[in-house]
């Protein structure tokens, strides 16, 4: 009898704990590799809060940026931004609610968040979390896909990858 009760308790905990998880992987895993040397970082990089820039290889965004053959910009493109401390951060531009490469979040510098123009969900980006603030994303706990930015201000070169 106690064994069955124990099983029911475990099953109950598993069911309700699984509903409370944050989803960081709603956007398909797609290669990301953007290499920006020191000279190009001065033009295409982010230098202070709230600088931000979109990188979308298929559309040649930003204009004039020379992508290499090995460059790739994720599922919907890459949002490169400078956080509150001036450090570069990167996220996929695709809204995890819509989960389509052509539905991209847009940065609202006045409100200090990113917003999906289709579903209206908003995301915290400048603290580096990509956490949902409102809308369907918050309800479903869909976070933006985050990418890694390697490099340093002393070398002046950076690589964005996953």
Automatic annotation (TrEMBL):
PROSITE patterns: PROKAR_LIPOPROTEIN. This is Rieske domain-containing protein.
């Amino acid at each position: 009898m106690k064994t069955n009760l124990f099983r029911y308790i475990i099953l109950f905990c598993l069911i309700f704990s699984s509903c409370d998880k944050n989803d960081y992987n709603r956007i398909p895993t797609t290669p990301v590799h953007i290499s920006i040397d020191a000279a190009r970082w001065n033009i295409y990089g982010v230098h202070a809060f709230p600088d931000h820039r979109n990188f979308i290889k298929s559309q040649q965004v930003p204009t004039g940026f020379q992508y290499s053959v090995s460059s790739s910009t994720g599922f919907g493109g890459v949002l490169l931004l400078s956080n509150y401390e001036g450090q570069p951060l990167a996220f996929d531009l695709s809204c995890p609610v819509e989960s389509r490469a052509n539905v991209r979040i847009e940065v609202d510098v006045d409100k200090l968040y990113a917003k999906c123009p289709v579903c209206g969900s908003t995301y915290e980006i400048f603290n580096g979390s990509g956490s949902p603030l409102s809308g369907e994303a918050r309800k479903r706990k869909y976070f933006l896909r985050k990418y890694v930015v390697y490099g340093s201000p002393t070398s002046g070169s950076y690589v964005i990858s996953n």
